[in-house]
Amino acid sequence: MTQTPAVPSREPLHPQPPSPTPMKAPPSKHRELTLRLLTAAVLVPSVLWLIAQGGYWVLGTVVIITLLGIRELYQLLEAKGARPLWGVGLTAGGLLPVVGYFGNEYHATILMTASLLAFMVIQVGKAEISQALASISGTFFGVFYVGWLLAHTVTLRNFQSVVGAKWGSEAAALFDPNAGAFFLTFCLTAVVLCDAGAYFVGRAWGRRKLAPKVSPGKTVEGSLGGIVVGTLGALVCKAIFDFFWPELSSAFSWTTAAAFGAVLSLAGMAGDLVESLLKRDAAQKDAGALLPGMGGVLDRIDSALLAIPMMYYLLLGFTFLSAGFR
Question: Which of 108, 126, 157 is the last residue of a domain?
Answer without folding.
Answer: 157
